[in-house]
Each structure stands twice: as C-alpha cells, then as structure tokens.
Amino acid sequence: MSHAATNQAATFESLCQTFRDAAKLSTTADTLEWDERTGMPRGGAEYRAEQVAYLRGLVHDMQTSPRVGEQLQTLQDWDAAKDPHSDIGATLKWLASDYHRQCKLPSELVQRTASCSVRGQGVWDAARKADDYKLFQPVLNEMLALKRETGERLQTESQTVYEALLDEFEPGAKAAALTKTFADLRADLVELIREISDSPRQVDTSLITQTFDKASQQKFSHLIAEAIGFDFERGRLDETSHPFCTTLGPSDCRILTRYESNFLPTSIFGTLHEAGHGLYEQGMREDWFGLPPGSYASLGIHESQSRLWENLVGRTLAFWEHFTPTLKEHFPTTLGDATVEQLHRCFNAVQPSLIRVEADEATYNLHIIVRFELEQALIGGDLSTDDLPVAWSDAYEEVIGVRPPSAADGVLQDVHWSAGLIGYFPTYTLGNLAAAQLYDAAKDELGDLDTMVRRGEFSPLHQWLKKHVHQQGRTRTADELITEATGQPLSAAPLIRSLRNRYGQVYDLND
Amino acid sequence: MSHAATNQAATFESLCQTFRDAAKLSTTADTLEWDERTGMPRGGAEYRAEQVAYLRGLVHDMQTSPRVGEQLQTLQDWDAAKDPHSDIGATLKWLASDYHRQCKLPSELVQRTASCSVRGQGVWDAARKADDYKLFQPVLNEMLALKRETGERLQTESQTVYEALLDEFEPGAKAAALTKTFADLRADLVELIREISDSPRQVDTSLITQTFDKASQQKFSHLIAEAIGFDFERGRLDETSHPFCTTLGPSDCRILTRYESNFLPTSIFGTLHEAGHGLYEQGMREDWFGLPPGSYASLGIHESQSRLWENLVGRTLAFWEHFTPTLKEHFPTTLGDATVEQLHRCFNAVQPSLIRVEADEATYNLHIIVRFELEQALIGGDLSTDDLPVAWSDAYEEVIGVRPPSAADGVLQDVHWSAGLIGYFPTYTLGNLAAAQLYDAAKDELGDLDTMVRRGEFSPLHQWLKKHVHQQGRTRTADELITEATGQPLSAAPLIRSLRNRYGQVYDLND
Q1: Which of A44, A157, A357, B5 is the most interior residue, by most CB within 10 Å?
Q2: Which residues of B are designated catalytic?
Q3: What architecture does CATH give domain A206-349+446-491?
C-alpha cells in the first residue's frame, strides 16, 4: 500500500468508528423507546422524551461533524472505494449521501419538524378519538409545509419534491415508475377482488373469532417464530399495542406482537410478520453493525422480508398442513375439530374494509395506492387539506368500494402524516411486490418449497434470503438487490400470480 | 443582584445543566442495565457492555471537563453558596468534591479498575462455582492493589486509606467511629442471639416453606408495595435474580424482586425492601433531579429506607394483623389456617447461618462486622490474601458461631470485593442502625405507629420520612441528617431495643 492509501485506510477506520459509536447511542435510544412501548410507567414519559431527544441530538452531531465532512472529502478519490457495491465503496457512498442530505437541512428545520411530529401525533390521537378532522387540519398543514420545505431543500435536479421525501425511506425510488407499477397492480387487484366477491364460495370465519386464551397464543407465537428461524438467544418476543421490530444491538433483536382474545390471526400473522423483519436484522453481518453493509437496503426491502414470511409462507396450505396439529394442541376446545382447509380458508378471507391495518392481503395494497396518490397531491399542492376528507372518501369508494362513515375510520386512521412520514406508505406495497418476487426466485433455485414448508423445513428458504438479501446489507440499492436476486427488475406480476393461486384455492376461482 | 452575582447565577445554571444532561445519559445507562437484568437475550451481553461503557465514559467526560473546573472555580466565593446546607451550597459542595475526587484519579487507573472489576466478577463467579479460592486470589490481589492506590490518591490528611474508599459510599464516615459503634452492636447482638438460642420456645417455619404459586406471590408483592406508598404511575415492579432498585428518571423508579416457590419471605420482604428504596427515590425533589439536592444522602441512608419498611414495619405484629387476611386470600390452600401470630413468628425466626444474604435480622449485622474487619485488614496490609480464607472462617466461628465448610459458602460468597466495592459493606449496617433510630423518632412525633400500621395507614410514616429524609436530598451528610431528624447522632441503641422488643415477643425473652 502506498503511504496515501495507508492514510486513507486509517481515515476510513476512524470514520467508521465514529459511526459505530453513534450506533451505540442510537441503539440506546431505541432501547429507551422499546421500554417505553413495553411497560414504562406513565409518569416516565416526559423525561424519557428528553433522554431520547438528547441522545438523537448527540448522534446527529456526531454524524454531521465537520470532521466527518473532512474525512469524507479525503476519501473521495480512494481507490478502495471505487466500486460502490463493495463494502467500503457502499459505506462511503451512503455515509456521504446521508452527510450531504443532513447538511442541506438547517437544524432549526429539523428541530421544528421533530417538534411538530411529537405535537402532531398528540393532536392526531385526540382528533381521531374525537372523530374531528378540523382539529387535525392545522397541524397537518404545518407538517405539509415543513415537509415541502424539506423536500425542496433535498431535491436533486432529477427529483420531484415528493421523490426527495420518498428517497429517505426508499433510496432511488422514482414516483413515475411507482405510479406505473401501482397502476398495473391496481387493475389486477380490482379484477381479482371482483372475482372473489362474485364467487359462490364465501369464507366463514367464525372458527377464528372465538375466544382464545392469551397464554396459549403467546406460546404458539413463540413456537412459530422459532420454527422459521428467529434466534431467541439473540432476540426476544414481547407484547405491545402497536407491533414492531427493533434492533438494540448486533445480537439483540426485539420483536413485538399483539394478542386479540377474539381474533386469532392478529397474533399469528403479526408474529410471523415481525419475525420476518427479525430474520433480516439477525441475518445481517455483525462486523458491519451500524454501517451501511450491516444495514437494511430500504424500507421496502425490509417489508418484503416480513411479508414473505407472513403471507407467502404463513398463509399457504403447506404451512397449515405443518402447523395445524400443533395449533390444535394449543387450543383444544376451540379448534379441536378444525381441519387444515378450514383454517387455511379462514386465514385467507377477503373482505373490502375501511381500515388499512386490518385489511386482508388482496385489498391491502389498494389502501396504500389511495394514500400514495393523495400524499403526492398534498405535497404537490394539487389537493388542499380542506378537500382532503372528501377526496379520501371518494378514493376509498372508487378504489376499494367502501365509503368511510367518519373521519376516524377514514382520513384520520393513520398516524404517519402527523409524524411527518410522507413518502413512507409506498414502501409497504413495494415490500409486498418484492416478497412475492423473491419467493418465486427462491423456489426456482431451491425447488419444491411447498414440500419443505409442509415438513417444517424453513432453513433452506431462510438461508437463501440470508445470502441474497440479509448479508447484502446496503451494498445494493433496492432495485439492484431485487434484480440481482431474482434476475428481473421489480414488477407486480409475481404478487398477482401468488394471490391468484392462493385465492383460487380458497374461492374456487377460474384460472 | 450585582453584576458579578448575575454572572455567577448564570454560571451556576450552566453548570447544573451539564449535570442534568449527564444525568440523562447515566439514567439511560441504568435503563440498559435494568433491561440486561430483566430479560435481555443472552446474545446481547457483549454489545450491551460496550454501550454502557461508552455512555459512562461520556458522563465522566462531561463531569470532569475543564469547563466544569473553571465554573466551580468561578463560583467558589459566591455568596448564594455560602450555606452548605442550602440547595445551591450543597450542590456546589458536592459537585466540587466529586470533581476534585475524579481529578485526583488518573484515567488509566479508573480504566484499569473498571476492567479489573468486569474481569474480577467473572473470575469470582467461576471460582465460587468451582469452590476454588486459589482461582480468585490473583484477581483479588490485583483489585486490592488498585483500590489501595485509589485510596492513597484520594486520602486527605485526616483520612486513612480505607476511609478514603469508604467515603465514596458513605461520605464523611470515620473508621474509628464505625469500629466503636460496631463493637457495641456486636456485643449486644451476640448476647441477644445467645438468649434466643437458649430460649425453650423455638420457631417452626414449616408454614412458610410450603409451595407458593408465583402468580399469587406477584399479586401480593404488588399489593404491599402499593399499600406502603410506592407509586405505580411512577414506577414498576419486575422480577430478577438479584433484587435491586434503580431510578431511570424523576418519575420512573424500577424495583425488582425474586420469587422463591418454597420460601415465601423472599418475595415479601424483598419487595418491601426494594419498595423502601423506591419510596426514597420517588420522594426526592424532581426539580433537582440529577443534582445533589435531588440525590440520596449516602448509601447508608438509602439502606435505612429499605430496612425500615422491610423490618421495622414489615416484620411487626401490627403489620401482620393488617395483612394476614389478605395474605390468606392469596394462598388459601397453604395458609388458610395460619394465624397472625404464627406468621409473625415465622417471619422473625433467628438461625445463625453461613450466608449473609439469607441471614435473619439479628445475625445479619454480624456478617457485616466480619467483612468490615477483614477488608480493613486487607487494605491496611495487616492481612494477606494467603491467610484470608482461614481468617474468614475463624471470624465466622468466633462472631457467628458457625464455620464455613467450603470457600464457596465462606470467603467466596459475595461479589463485592471482586467488583472493587471495598468500603461498601458497612453501609448495610449503618442502614440498619439508621432505620431503627429514624423509626423511633417518627414514633415520638407521630404517636402510636403500631395502631396506624394495624389499620393499614402507612401515609403518616411515609410523609414523615419524605419530609425528614427524602426531600433533604444531599443537602446534609448522613450524620447531619440523622442528627437533625432524630435529635441524636447515630447509635446502636435503637436497633438493639427494636430487636429485643420484637424477638422478646417471638422467643419469650426476659426484659
């Protein structure tokens, strides 16, 4: 190595150490938030918010220090970083882009947004409870203005303001391409749902709406998470009101689920979903923890891992051929007489409904499409918040076929916009698409996945995902990762095929 | 205010803000440790240690920055700080003494001690399991050398090396005074224990060694903690293997207890003990959180609050007159026929034994006296670690009347020395003494506490402690606090009176 290269290697190591140290603090803040959402006493809320804000501030200061800027500058022409898909190259590419992103945002804008987000979520919560959109509108206006300013400051020449916002969650995503993909998807989904609702064979879900003991639900949830490969030596499963997955260290991943006494799928599919996120987190390379090669590629890719296990694996006949006997052991009185087919049908019931988080797999993406169109119009100035509630209801009626009777069950149902998460919703659908496409590619390579699942052999699929997704970290963009792993750019076709196949069984649809 | 005073007020505010910010980080580290001891997955240990060390390092840097030194210098002659018992005066007094203490210790010594402590606890654990003192001896030698160097660097002209170490836990404590107090206590305890063992009336504890359902123990523990005043809006009770109390914010105090299926007192008195610590933490002034007026006076005073509720309240006949019916409701099959007197006797059984943490209230302080004498001899160089095991066994035989059959049940039973906690043990006995003396003073002022306790009225005592102890924070030394609250300097007499009174009932002793 030349003298310059030796220096650059040392500079790189020092830069990485800063981000590793910052990760120690940000995972610490995540731990505080995990605790807040699992059992912190109510009195602790105010101080907890101060602690988290202080830690996040320290992290921000570390990541945007002038020294980091100088080090990135020094490393700009480093030979070892030339390949953006190498670990070093990807690290420098993302650290530089994050750094420049942060530097474009004045800290008073960041602080105003953070403060509006905390306040906004409180106002949203109150407005939803009071079913009063007017209460929410002023803070929504404020947040939209802040996010518009943020997008304008961040946008590159080739980006719209909305794309600049989207970029934070799904780096490199293009609104035009998304619009096209979502339009294809929408047409196919609307047709599929029409066929399902026209089918003479409908699903009776009374089996899964009985009363289910929480302790048994907890045991079964633990069992299926472990079966698909979630490592309880390096993670745990807890209860919360809004399920999530959070990573508190390279070998400490926490997944959280919810138990409904009268609706069994909530805990089962909630657990599979979060465990899917957990497998991704546990499958990353520990030696790159806190740096891009040890991070997720995008939120869409993260969601693909949860949806794959929840839906592509968890809702199949093969999965329930394997798990029905165990499930019946856990609920002998309520499910003692249930058959595999009955359970499989119950877990794949389709019913157009008002609330996204309760939606079935077929209609779910339509909920996202509504939001994707509305939030673009809001940010672009094509839709005023005065007209939003009616636009929302019209869109639901047109796209999903149901009209919300109230703001609480309509435009006020999601926390995202109040929290400043604009450009986030599309990642849910991107995840669904990627899940189906990755599953198909795995099947092409591994052979008869159904038979493996029927035998409870989840490891081949898990290892395939680990190799093609988890261990890649952020050395690829989402698009690159999908194309390399599946041989195709992302498309709606695999998801539609998968849904047609599964719902075909359940609703006796014609091919 | 003069211009200089205005400046000094601003400097003081800035200094306090630094320590408030440091408290945000140190309570964050405490949260990480709480999580580690309540359910962190095993895989998380290594990274968790890195996180905690990093946070503790940041705190140390903040508290010992040159700017803090300059600010303390600027405020040295500030009129508002003249009275060391005022909030401002006490703040500056303790911050300055901590600062100078820290500055006397080179950071390489601090780091070597921290590293030896982590390693030492691991070695201790292995040595105890293998019942092999020789395994432990080298790291004990290393730790003693480090602590001796620490003490030598810290000691003032009027202090011995041991006193300099003691000072960290019990500021201002004098070894000579302790030796005198402990000698008085020892003589009285030995006599009391002789009378108890000679008594024809012995205690049958079979009632409390049956099998007790954990869920019922948890409910009863929660109930008694709440009854004595622990605020569950501002705290919670969890399970752990080594009970403790930790404060994660001004309104977030966590207490932890242990449930033994075959020994009921473990959870009951463990909970009362930790809840007593918790009442102290919850009773402090929130606006001084993270600063001396919002901190505990000393470890001895902290222990006095736990021991007071555990023993002076929790082991009385009056307490069980109140709680026996509720206890029987929780354990109808095992305790359905138990009487108040039977339970009271069981909870006050005395039996000289080998293990400190399992010792009854009468013999407990003798275990401490053994450690106090041995650790002084070790630090002073009067006892070599070669001779320690025999010295330990001889002391147990002489003081408590039992000889350990093994190192594991003898000299290897406590983690403290391996962790560098030398000078810590005496605070346990100081707490016992202070508890009895404070209880007497409260009774003098409040009247018939027994009747209140019998009625389940714990608030008068709680409020008295809040006023005389909790809200004082660290504006008084332990000695000053006890003298002001009770009208007397600390002595062994109240504890001995209290034990004689209670054991007199249980063992029919003559007055």
Answers
A1: A44
A2: 274
A3: Orthogonal Bundle (1.10)
